[in-house]
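Form 7-S
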Amino acid sequence: MGEAISSYVMAYLNRINYTGTIDLSQETLARLQEQHIKSVPYENLDIWCGVPLSLEITDLYNKIVINRRGGYCFELNALFGWLLRQLGFKVTDLFARFWRDETVLPPKRRHHVLLVDISGKRFLCDVGVGGVVPLRPIQVIEQVAQQQNDEAYQLKRDENYGWMLNEQKDDSWRLIYSFTEEPQLLIDYYAASYWCESAPHSPFKESAIAAIRTEDGRHTLKGIEFRTFTSEGVSTYIPQTEDEFNHALKTYFGISLSSLPASIKFDATKPF
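Output:
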């Protein structure tokens, strides 16, 4: 790159443990996304505790980079999009409908994704999902299986819902989410984010949740139950005291008690 990288961008790169060269290649984009997903947790702790969210880039930077917290799609993809633009990538913000695990169909548009153009090739980028989704960008081409380690993904087209991201499960393809190509501004996500924060039936208000990918699997939190997924199986840990909970939160997700809302209280008899 021709211009020097700012200290703000360098701090962000350090936050996601990114090392190596920076250029506008597909390979660099893939490493940035993978490092982000493995370094910054998906979590809803502010929503669970009733702390209002801000989607302003300065606030997101302070929360995620400075205070080493995580967030959910409207936070994580907004800030990751900012990083990519600072590095010189051509980024378009898009809206998506999350289909996987939804019971009321078709689902509302409540997911933020990114479209990145590299020399005419377009890639779907997403660092804002707690479940298993592509670790690296998916090229936006129709009905081509794209393998990522033990996972495979494919994009299909629907005349009503646009691009449909599918994952391979056993011998079939299952829909994760869909998105259209209408460019969005950050203010376009405010209403959907407010619904996620405030609506009585919002899935983000059901319990405390967190997730992060690891080199050989992932860690998750739901309520006070910590789970670790590896190729060898699943292990579960349920802390019995507030100190044990805080230690596990730091160990698995890098979140320290000092960075959490003061309203968080440990109670082993409740979801959180």
